[in-house]
User: Which sequence fits this backbone?
């Protein structure tokens, strides 16, 4: 059974760094590009970026280089760091590959 | 102009069919892309439904009923998700996605109401 489980703080202060982790089980971590996707309240899906096991990363240009995605294959964990957050970064953050998505974790940016 | 455009809403009756469109920007040829479709119900993550490039290059998501199917309308430069025999539980948001230069691009989503 494939499981993707996001974890991280639910509240982040403005201007600080959002850090999330996604643990992958039940599927080969070498078989997919692994993505982070977010969804602001009441809005659509926004792709943040992805990584392949060889270390290749791609990012949404709209993030203006604030995002960093890494992959620890030994721990089967995908990570996201998003710097200099603002209220506009509030939303549910999902880790995903094409066929599978995590349940998502809500991150609120507020002082 | 957005890369992928979806109508914001669509209504259909139980038992009927619904055709959800995903129109690609005019400089992007739908024939070159595999279109992915996701269903999202309130409070839940998106669920993969299917991917469709052609009748010989398509894949149904695990456990997804066959009444969900994909196609393309080349004349409209659009991908299509057809849902036949609509059921009340099909009421959800539907998103299309393509891979473009190693990145994902999503459509804005269509809210399907079954009434």
Assistant:
């Amino acid at each position: 059974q494939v499981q993707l489980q996001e974890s991280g703080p639910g509240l982040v202060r403005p201007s600080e760094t959002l850090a999330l982790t996604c643990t992958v089980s039940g599927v080969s971590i070498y078989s997919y590009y692994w993505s982070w996707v977010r969804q602001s309240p009441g809005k659509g899906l926004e792709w943040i970026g992805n990584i392949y096991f060889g270390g290749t990363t791609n990012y949404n240009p709209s993030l203006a280089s604030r995002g960093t995605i890494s992959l620890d294959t030994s721990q089967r964990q995908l990570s996201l760091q998003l710097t200099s957050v603002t209220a506009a970064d509030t939303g549910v953050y999902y880790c995903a590959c094409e066929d599978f998505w995590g349940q998502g974790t809500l991150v609120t940016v507020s002082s | 102009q957005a890369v992928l455009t979806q109508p914001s809403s669509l209504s259909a009756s139980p038992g009927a069919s619904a055709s959800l469109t995903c129109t690609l920007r005019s400089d992007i040829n739908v024939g070159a892309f595999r279109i992915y479709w996701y269903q999202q119900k309130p409070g839940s993550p998106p669920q993969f439904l299917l991917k469709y490039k052609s009748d010989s290059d398509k894949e149904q998501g695990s456990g997804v009923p066959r009444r969900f199917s994909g196609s393309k309308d080349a004349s409209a430069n659009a991908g299509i998700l057809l849902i036949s025999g609509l059921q009340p539980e099909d009421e959800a948001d539907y998103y299309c996605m393509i891979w473009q230069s190693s990145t994902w691009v999503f459509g804005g989503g269509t809210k399907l109401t079954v009434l």
Q: What stands out?
A: The two ends of chain B are 32 Å apart (CA to CA).
